[in-house]
Amino acid sequence: MHKIKGVFCLNSKCKHYFEDSCMLIQETGTVNISKTGKCEDFVAGEYIGYADRSDLTSVAIDPETLEVVFID
Ligand code: SF4
Questions:
Q1: CB atoms within 10 A of CB 28
Q2: Ligand 1 pocket, 30 CB below 6 A?
Q3: Are 41 and 34 in contact (CB under 8 A)?
Q4: Measured from the CB, is residue 21 less than 6 Å from ligand 1?
Q5: Where are the domains positioned within the chain?
């Protein structure tokens, strides 16, 4: 087993996966990868950040009336 400090992971079926990132690495600094290349910290599930979407709102933007503000 190897402790890895950075990994690009797309395993959206893992409880630690959030938006193309491993939140376990964000929280603890490492993940454990086996000699055969498998992540030993994989936990099936959904990251807590995806759990409550009830307060999200969809908006439609009209490009004709959209104003762009440049900030120095
Ligand atoms: S724990 Fe492993 S499988 Fe899960 S998101 Fe992190 S690197 Fe990917």
A1: 12
A2: no
A3: no
A4: no
A5: 2-41
Residue range 30-67, pLDDT digits in tens: 999 999 989 999 999 999 988 866 666 766 777 788 77
Q: Report the distance separating Cα 26 and Cα 16, nearest Å.
A: 10
- Measured from the Cβ of residue 30, the count of other Cβ atoms closer than 10 Å reads 15
Looking at residue 56, its pLDDT comes to: 66
Length of the chain: 72
pLDDT at residue 68 tops 80:
no
Measured by CA distance, the residue closest to atom 8 of ligand 1 is 9
Q: Please say whether the dihedral angle defined by the alpha carbons of residues 24, 14, 18 and 48, taken in this order, is positive or negative.
A: negative
Write the CA distances from 16 to 22, 39, 47, 62, 66, integer angstroms.
6, 11, 6, 36, 37
Q: Give 38 Cα–ligand 1 centroid separation in angstroms.
A: 9
